[in-house]
Amino acid sequence: MTAQGVSRRERVRQATLAEIRAAARRLLIEQGSQAVTINAVAREMGMSGPALYHYFAGHDELVGAVTADFFRELTEAMETARDACPPGEHARRLLAACRAMRRWAVTHRAEFGWVFASPITAERRPDSPRELAGRDFEQVFLEEVAELWRSRRFPVPAPEELDPSVGEQLRAYASAGGMGLPVEAVHVFMSCWIRLYGLLCMEVLNQLDFVYSDMEPVFEECLREIAPKLGLDYEAPATAG
To answer: What is the C-alpha to C-alpha distance for residues 26 and 110, in angstroms, rounded to an integer?
Structure first.
């Protein structure tokens, strides 16, 4: 069997895998996460359920692959917006990444809910596509905050001011993947992330519709509050026209 023949089969397989993930995404958007089953995706593909197992071992593996696609798509949008700003302009880069995250979230509500607001059912292997893509997403913020800390340190609490349990948990995170940030800097980073992520989830899940019909200024107010915590100046978004 020639190498060219193997390559062609692999190209066909990869195309089929992409088509399966696209079918799962359509079901998610049109019918909700409960509709994304092996049999339903197989019907979308015009194949039998057992045939789909030639490509994915089961529902968890399919969920993990689709989730990894969403993570990669969101990460690319954030990185593109961030990297359009010059290196070293930390405020502009972080704000651009945050705004790109919101844009993706509000235009891909089903996908955002699938990734961030649903119970995780897929297997959480450290080397799984989902976990690897999730870590890449996390790095978009963390890398910039770590670079900011190295260039000009932002205000942090004294280590003894942290609750002992909080400090212990943050130390474990910092040692595992905190990019050299001290515990107190990780605490500030997480405080900002929780504020930002919590607000975005509430918007995407329509939890604030009883008050707000336009959440963009509310999100900008959140960014305005977060920026000084990182020692940055808030810069309003450019207006069209």
So the answer is: 10
Count of domains observed in the chain: 2
**Cβ atoms < 10 Å from Cβ of 236:** 9
235 within some domain: no
- Give the whole-angstrom CA distance, residue 179 versus residue 102: 25
Residues 217, 210: Cα–Cα separation, whole Å: 16
Question: 131 and 40 in one domain?
Answer: no
CA distances from 217 to 99, 101, 203, 206, 220 (A): 11, 15, 12, 16, 5
Instruction: State which residues form the domain around 4.
Output: 1-56
Asked whether residue 95 is domain-assigned, the answer is: yes
**What CA–CA distances, in Å, run from 182 to 18, 60, 100?**
41, 36, 28
The answer on 144 and 47 residing in a single domain is no
Whether residue 12 is found in the same domain as residue 84:
no
The CA-atom distances, in angstroms, between 80 and each of 14, 84, 90 are 26, 6, 15
- Within a domain: residue 241? no
Q: What are phi and psi of 102, to 5 degrees?
A: -65, -45
Same domain, 199 and 84: yes
**Distance of alpha carbon 212 from alpha carbon 93, whole angstroms:** 28
Do residues 76 and 46 share a domain?
no
What's the average model confidence in pLDDT over 36-48?
94
Alpha-carbon distance of 197 to 222, in angstroms, equals 10
- At which residue do the structure tokens 């990297």 appear? 83
pLDDT digits (tens, 9 = 90+) for 72-125: 999 999 999 999 999 989 999 999 999 999 999 999 999 999 998 766 655 567
